[in-house]
Task: structure prediction
Amino acid sequence: MISIIRATKDDIDVLYDLILGIAKHHGQEHYVLTDKNELMKSGFTDTPKFEALIAKYEGKVSGYLTFTWNYSIWMGEDYMNIDDVYILDEYRGKKIGQHLMQKAKVLCEERNIGMIRWEVEKDNLGAIKFYEQLGAKLKTKGIFKWSVNQ
Result:
């Protein structure tokens, strides 16, 4: 049985562990600069900067999805931007990712939002295939990052 819940401040330890989990999965743990206190301040206030969904499989934490609400100047409307989707290795292939993505879609429908956007590494063929099976379309664009604190 798969259940998807919206993360609350009581889930901060689990959420942080999942964030570290995806970073380790991609060999990028050195990029994780946040901590539990920052997550609490940023995500669990009256005006959260992000939200999270936590997946459970047979009552055990199995994955998560984080997102923000953004605005598109060109479209003239809000959209959901997914930051991370991650399923723990032992739970892959059990349709947990599909449940997380469907819950994200429902949240958009509840807010009358018509688009979800996210990024995927171009060599992550498994993820690309998964997203295309959902009906998502891959748009190729370069991503720039400019660190202004140097």
Remarks:
- The helical segments are 12-25, 36-43, 96-110, 125-134.
- The chain has a mean pLDDT of 95.
- Strands lie at 2-6, 51-57, 60-72, 77-87, 116-118.
